[in-house]
Amino acid sequence: MLIILTADFTPAIKNSFIRDGTFHQVYGLSLIAFFASMLAYLFTLFINIRIFHFWKKRSQRKYF
Fold first, then answer.
1. CA nearest neighbour of 23 among 32, 33, 13
2. Per the UniProt record, which residue ranges are transmembrane (predicted)?
């Protein structure tokens, strides 16, 4: 993630095929996508723990 963020703020060389604006359009939102992915992961982990404890309580610790 740090490499992409650094590359986004570093200007392209003069004879590059990809311009700065194009690179930013493609990779500029990577940080937002990274944090959205982490948020979704933590949310589903929380839901998974809640479901596990529900079934643990419901089965009276018979299978867990």
1. 13
2. 26-52
What band does 64 get if pLDDT is binned at 50, 70 and 90? low
- Full domain range(s) for residue 42: 2-58
Compute the CA torsion angle 6, 9, 11, 12 (nearest 10 deg): 60
Q: Is residue 64 one of the residues assigned to a domain? A: no
What does the buried/exposed string (b/e) look like for 15-41 if buried means 16 or more CB atoms within 10 Å of the residue's CB? Answer: eeeeeeeebeeeeeeeeeeeeeeeeee
pTM, 2 dp = 0.66
pLDDT in tens, 22-56: 999 989 889 899 999 999 999 999 999 999 999 99
Note whether residue 43 is domain-resident: yes
Domain tally for the chain?
1
